[in-house]
Specification:
Layout lengths: L2 E5 L2 E4 L4 E8 L7 E7 L6 E7 L5 E3 L7 E6 L4 E6 L8 E8 L8 E2 L3 E6 L1
Parallel strand pairs: 2-11
Antiparallel strand pairs: 1-3, 3-8, 4-5, 4-9, 5-6, 7-8, 9-10, 9-11
């Protein structure tokens, strides 16, 4: 069974920074892609940033380009999201997702970590 654990959320002021971490674990685990999504009450889960380990680099949602930076380690199945110049509209629960089967969509999810940005 795959387990994803997120950490690093919190309450900050507009303009501050936070770094989220995600660690995936499981027997014989291999991840093919990992990403961050976020959800606010009453809305769909939105893509924030993600990476496919086989190449192509990181991709970002339009609202976070230039402010958020994704990094990670495919061998350790870890993913990080450096969030700079945070805005109140970044307030959400952030979820880490992973693709653990080749050709599948995101099939494993963490419990989420709350990020709250005050104005």
């Amino acid at each position: 069974q795959v387990q994803l654990v997120e950490s690093g959320g919190g309450l900050v002021q507009a303009g501050d920074s936070l770094k989220l971490s995600c660690a995936a674990s499981g027997r014989d685990l291999r991840t093919y892609a990992m990403a961050w999504f976020r959800r606010t009450p009453g809305k769909e889960r939105d893509f924030v940033a993600g990476i496919t380990w086989s190449g192509g680099g990181a991709s970002y949602g339009d609202s976070v380009k230039g402010r958020f930076t994704l990094s990670g380690d495919s061998a350790r199945n870890t993913l990080y999201l450096q969030m700079n110049n945070l805005k109140p509209e970044d307030t959400a629960v952030y979820y880490c997702g992973a693709v653990t089967r080749w050709g599948a969509s995101y099939d494993s999810w963490g419990q989420g970590t709350q990020v709250t940005v005050s104005s």
